[in-house]
UniProtKB/TrEMBL annotation:
InterPro entries with a match to the protein in the record: ICL/PEPM, Pyrv/PenolPyrv_kinase-like_dom, Pyrv_kinase-like_dom_sf
SUPFAM superfamilies linked: Phosphoenolpyruvate/pyruvate domain (SSF51621)
PANTHER family (alphabetical): CARBOXYPHOSPHONOENOLPYRUVATE PHOSPHONOMUTASE-LIKE PROTEIN (AFU_ORTHOLOGUE AFUA_5G07230) (PTHR42905:SF16), PHOSPHOENOLPYRUVATE CARBOXYLASE (PTHR42905)
Gene Ontology molecular-function annotations: lyase activity
Organism: Amycolatopsis alkalitolerans
Protein's name in the database: Isocitrate lyase/phosphoenolpyruvate mutase family protein
Keyword Membrane attributed: no
One Pfam family cited in the UniProt record for this chain: PEP_mutase
Entry keyword set: Lyase, Pyruvate
Higher taxonomy: Bacteria, Bacillati, Actinomycetota, Actinomycetes, Pseudonocardiales
Length: 235
């Protein structure tokens, strides 16, 4: 499947739901359930390979897992590629596209330095990846300023970052784990008509906020692991 097939699924107000997977078999289950796209969770994939999240799994193993997932399904695959594993933009784009994936999440956290990259630096990196990949890759640019501290106080910087990333060529922006419908709604309005990826907020209809994409992150993997742990105790 092509990036164009994934890109057209990003419709503000009619979000595509992404039940994130961790291996080829879970990817097949998502496709068989009728979902039009398969997305990975870096945390779940890393755990399935025996490593913690946060770019602590070897990049070769993460790309190999992505390739197995892409081979297993006929729908578009988008990969949670963390911060790009330290690869130069062209090398990153080449390696990701070689897996068969047509989309990726890219976060602005720099795991090597232990903080969030300056906005201009991250925008430059996104622009270089866009140039290297052309239209063959749907880029979902993650905005990590909402992961710590007061989310309303982080909103102006989050909006600034989102606009810079969109100007650099991102197809979608992802203000990860915003917990307040009001904050998420203001973010969506500020970057309209761009596509926004949200996470589920209990009791909130994200479509009414205008999001274009909803990620479940590692939730399915955690639920599966919890069920298995409980079932093992009954054996």
């Amino acid at each position: 499947m092509t990036a164009a097939a994934l890109r057209v699924l990003h419709v503000p107000g009619k979000p595509v739901l992404l039940p994130n997977v961790w291996d080829a078999d879970s990817a097949r289950l998502v496709e068989e359930a009728g979902f039009p796209v398969v997305a990975t969770s870096s945390g779940a994939v890393a755990a399935s390979l025996g490593y913690p999240d946060g770019e602590r799994a070897p990049a070769d193993e993460m790309f190999a897992a992505a390739a197995r997932i892409a081979r297993a399904v006929s729908v578009p695959v988008t990969v949670d590629a963390e911060s790009g594993y330290g690869f130069p933009p062209r090398d990153f784009a080449d390696r990701l596209l070689a897996t068969g994936a047509v989309g990726c999440n890219l976060e602005d956290t720099d795991h090597a330095r232990g903080g969030i990259r300056p906005v201009a630096e991250q925008a430059e990196r996104l622009a270089a990846i866009r140039e290297a990949a052309g239209d063959a890759l749907v880029i979902n640019a993650r905005v990590d300023v909402f992961l710590r501290g007061d989310q309303r106080e982080a909103l102006p910087e989050g909006i600034e970052r989102a606009k810079a990333y969109l100007a650099a060529g991102a197809d979608c922006v992802y203000p990860i784990l915003i917990r307040s419908p009001d904050v998420l709604g203001e973010f969506v309005k500020a970057v309209h008509p761009a596509a926004v990826n949200g996470n589920r907020i209990p009791g909130t209809d994200l479509a009414s906020l205008g999001v274009a994409r909803v990620s479940m992150g590692a939730r399915l993997w955690r639920d599966t692991r919890t069920w298995l742990a409980g079932h093992l105790k009954t054996l």
